[in-house]
TrEMBL record:
Example of a GO MF term: ATP hydrolysis activity
Designated name of the protein: Thermosome
Keywords in alphabetical order: ATP-binding, Chaperone, Nucleotide-binding
GO cellular-component term (any): cytoplasm
Record region (Disordered): 525-553
Length: 553
């Protein structure tokens, strides 16, 4: 090898198809990709944010305002952009709401970092400054947050309403907020130290199309959207023993294809008798267990249906797996996968009632608990967006009930944080100081975009907000409906502190991850869509932002 080097020949260590982008180019490439993603969701932020319509390759349509859903549905084909999408996903997992905010802040951090890089500030100084600012911001959030009484239902309802403003949930937000607060209340228990613990496992969301959103309801127990398998069965059962079965009540089929040849009619009869007996035995087993109701995930043979009806047992077939799992919590039953070995202990206990109008069963448990939020809307798209909005609000309420720390929204918290971080920057020496200041500026993106999306002048708004905060009005935010700067907390725009902490942290970590890269080495073109046919060879790859992006910006 040394011989070849001496001869002055370049040594090839990478395959011909691979691509490499270095130093400044790598930073530019990464920063623009990340900013493109942030830009794509910005217009959806806040009560006056718009929605996006996403059409996937199969032609199915999603209409949404939810940051994480937009990014997941967009056909993004770029490694850096995918890192930013992870910010939204982490925010969704950890906090449930604030995904647009987190991504928008990450984009703004990188935009401001780009300016610092232009001034020849080394990326490591920026990274360190961002990290310091983010740690400080967390402390400040904790300091600014108000501790509320977790029994203060009105305030908690406001957090739900704030989270739902500007989504498909908007028009019925009072009604839905009340349902959400009640639902969370039903699944909250106090632990030994007197802290609230919310277990959303006990809460199930069911959706139904064809009715108004205002008719959504909270039901104690679970729902099974099915009919009884036989007309002669009871449709209701009080104080019922309930069997949840994950095995078919059918004749057992052999694994291999078999052919039975019969030589006289008796033999055929015997064969049929055998099958009949098998079904009879299964139904007898169920009857011996004293089950009054059977929710079966698999099929039920016609003959077995008849036997079950004769025994006066209410049976439902092809119930959803997720319904069965939730019912097991509601009635305290185990899901039986082998009827032979089932015992009475596996059965649950509760009431089953029939709603003839909606053609579904309500199942209520006696000892175990569980509630179902039944969301209604006119069409599938309405219900889907409703479900996403309600899910965000559920997480927000759950956090508020268990954590108890809330903040003023409408940009109030961001402007206050920015002002405090600027003070903090004075105590930071070296170039990191500039990065801390850039971090403060980045947080102010939130009120700017809220104003922009509401058709207000973002500079004027920011000037007014800063002035109010300089006067010590910690909760001064933007009322997007009137365009005024006011105490948003008193106006009922309230957000959980935990979600904001998470948004600031994950935005800063993602920005730092991107800034640390000075070399991109890719085995093929710079695309993450390895499944698809790659056209045109390497150079085209740098475009990188899959087809869907173009129209977005
Ligand atoms: N009535 C209001 N007036 C002013 N600002 C509001 C009002 N209601 C909500 N906001 C603000 O809107 C922002 C939240 O907007 P949005 O719900 O669109 O984005 P997100 O929560 O960051 O992301 P996503 O909900 O998509 O996960 C917060 O900053 C919140 O304070
Ligand atoms: Mg939100």
């Amino acid at each position: 090898m040394s011989q070849r080097m001496q001869q002055g020949q370049p040594m090839i260590v990478m395959s011909e198809d691979s691509q490499r982008v270095k130093d400044k180019d790598a930073q530019d490439y990464n920063i623009s990709a990340a900013r493109a993603v942030a830009e794509a969701v910005r217009s959806t932020l806040g009560p006056k944010g718009m929605d996006k319509m996403l059409v996937d390759s199969m032609g199915s349509v999603t209409i949404t305002n939810d940051g994480v859903t937009i990014l997941q549905e967009m056909d993004i084909d770029n490694p850096t952009a995918e890192m930013i999408i992870e910010v939204a996903e982490t925010q969704e997992d950890e906090a449930g709401d604030g995904t647009t905010t987190a991504v928008a802040i990450a984009g703004e951090l990188l935009k401001n970092a780009e300016d610092l890089l232009e001034q020849d500030i080394h990326p490591t100084a920026i990274i360190k400054g961002f990290h310091m600012a983010s740690e400080q911001a967390r402390e400040e959030i904790d300091d600014i947050a108000s501790d509320i009484d977790t029994d203060d239902e009105e305030l908690i309802r406001k957090t739900a309403e704030t989270s739902m403003t500007g989504k498909g949930t908007e028009v019925n937000k009072e009604h839905l907020a009340q349902l959400i607060v009640d639902a969370v209340g039903q699944v909250t228990v106090e632990d030994a130290d007197g802290n609230n613990v919310v277990d959303l496992e006990y809460l199930n969301i069911e959706t139904q199309t064809g009715r108004a959103v205002g008719e959504s309801d909270l039901l104690v127990g679970g729902i099974v959207d099915k009919d009884p398998v036989h007309d002669n069965m009871p449709t209701e059962a009080e104080d019922a023993d309930i069997l949840l079965l994950n095995e078919a009540i059918e004749v057992e089929e052999t694994d291999v294809d078999t052919e039975v040849s019969v030589t006289d009619p008796d033999q055929l009869q015997k064969f049929l008798d055998r099958e009949e007996k098998q079904l009879r035995d299964k139904v007898d087993t169920i009857a011996d267990l004293d089950a009054d109701v059977v929710f079966c995930q698999k099929g039920i043979d016609d003959l077995a249906q008849h036997y079950l009806a004769k025994e006066g047992i209410l049976a439902v077939r092809r119930a959803k797996k997720s319904d069965l799992e939730f019912l097991s919590e509601v009635v305290g039953a185990s899901i039986v996968s082998d009827l032979e070995s089932a015992t009475e202990d596996d059965l649950g206990f509760g009431d089953v009632t029939r709603d003839d109008e909606d053609e579904l069963f309500y199942v209520e448990g006696d000892d175990a608990h569980g509630v179902t939020l039944l969301l209604r809307g006119s069409t599938e798209h309405v219900v889907d967006e409703l479900e996403r909005g309600v899910n965000d609000a559920l997480d927000v309420v759950a956090q508020t009930v268990s954590d108890g720390r809330v903040l003023a929204g409408g940009g109030a918290i961001e402007v206050e944080l920015a002002s405090r971080l600027r003070d903090y920057a004075d105590s930071v020496s070296g170039r990191e100081q500039l990065a801390v200041e850039a971090f403060a500026d980045s947080l102010e993106l939130v009120p700017r975009v809220l104003a922009e999306n509401a058709g207000l002048d973002s500079i004027d708004t920011l000037v007014d907000l800063r002035a109010a905060h300089d006067d010590g009005e910690v909760q001064a935010g933007l009322n997007v409906f009137s365009g005024d700067v006011e105490n948003t907390f008193d106006a009922g725009v309230v957000e959980p502190a935990h979600a904001k902490e998470q948004a600031v942290t994950s935005a800063s970590e993602a920005a730092n991850l991107v800034l640390k890269i000075d070399d991109i080495i890719s085995a093929g073109d710079l695309s993450t869509d390895k499944g698809e046919e790659q056209e045109g060879g390497a150079p085209g790859g740098m475009g990188g932002m899959g087809g869907g992006m173009g129209g977005m910006m």
